[in-house]
Amino acid sequence: MSILTQDKVIIAFKQLGSKLINPTDIVENEVNGALNSNAWFTLDNVKKSIASFAAMLNSQDIDTWFQAIKFSSSPKKIGLILAGNIPMVGFHDVLCVLATGNIALIKLSSSDDKLIKTVITELIKIEPAFADKIQYVERLKGFDAVIATGSNNSSRYFDFYFSKVPNIIRKNRNSVAVLSGTETEAELNRLGADIFDYFGLGCRNISKIYFPEGYNIANFYEGIESYQPIINHFKYNNNYDYNKSIYLVNAAKHFDNGFLLLKEDKNIASPLAVLFYEEYKSINEVENTLNEQAENIQCIVTQVPLRMKTFNFGESQHPKLWDYADNVNTVEFLNGLN
Asked: What is the number of domains present in the chain?
């Protein structure tokens, strides 16, 4: 078995990115199995996720990313507890561990236990030396550090169980959008992707929107009308019907366009098929609110200039290699172990 070097990792990542641009074999071999085990993993969503990683693993961004990466001469075993809410969501953590020369002990989510393995198999075909750097486990043991992604409830267990080793423990987060009121229909349509990609199940999906005071909700609904077919997915439709019935029974004020409910609410995390909203009087007011909620926010989507990191409409589900979850630099964490 050849020795893995940083140069080999860089070359392999670039080749994987090129392969994922046309992932016909990967999709054909695995999508049926993924669909059978998780009805949320539609063919469109699987392709969308693979395309996102293909774009992430472009040659220029890989070269830029690796400028800040130290390749470990004494590899550590990094336990990875991966989420499974959207296809391949945990793959970035795997990339970070491999990029730093460490060993990935991977605890796959039962909701996403096929696609990531298939892509990793492709990576090992490109560079066989990765085989010594990847282990799939049912239970973590013998690890030097842990990166665990889960819910607010599971994070309490993770905090207790992994407290004696260096760790990154991720909890529930949601993303928000801020509108100025001057957006075009095309811009709102791009915002629709941030709301509806992966059925809204990702932490980078918009669950809360801030409208300027007096905003005409009809303009927003017109901009996202092209996403109406989402209601044809039975699990999404079930959530829509359930939440609609709750609001009707409780006589709760809400807006409804037939596939997305809008409800005024201070909370950031909304139920599936529901978007919470608030009105604001000034941008300063919004910025103060977002700063107060920073621990609960994954990303902010807007075209309004804010004094914080933001994403343009349609970009929330297309992060760069250096757009780390929860704004915790995973590579910096891994580099610091040596």
From this structure: 2
The last residue of one of the domains, among 151, 172, 193, is 172
Q: Backbone phi, then psi, for 249, in 5-degree steps?
A: -60, -40
Domain boundary residue among 114, 147, 172?
A: 172
pLDDT band at 153 (very low <50, low <70, confident <90, very high): confident
pTM higher than 0.70 for the full model? Answer: yes
Residue 120's identity, in one-letter code, is: I
**Could you tell me if 146 and 163 are in contact, meaning their C-beta atoms sit under 8 angstroms apart?**
no
Residue 232 reports pLDDT greater than 80: yes
Structural domain containing residue 276: 174-302
C-alpha to C-alpha distance for 61 and 59, rounded to whole angstroms: 6
What does the pLDDT look like over 297-338, one tens digit per residue?
999 999 999 999 999 999 999 999 999 999 999 999 999 997
Q: How far is CA 38 from CA 60, 84, 218, 236, 270, in A?
A: 34, 10, 34, 13, 22
| Residue 321 maps to a domain | no
* Tokens found for residue 61: 């961004």
Please indicate, yes or no, whether residues 189 and 108 belong to a single structural domain of this protein: no
β-bridge pairing 103-107 and 134-136? parallel
pLDDT at 31: 59
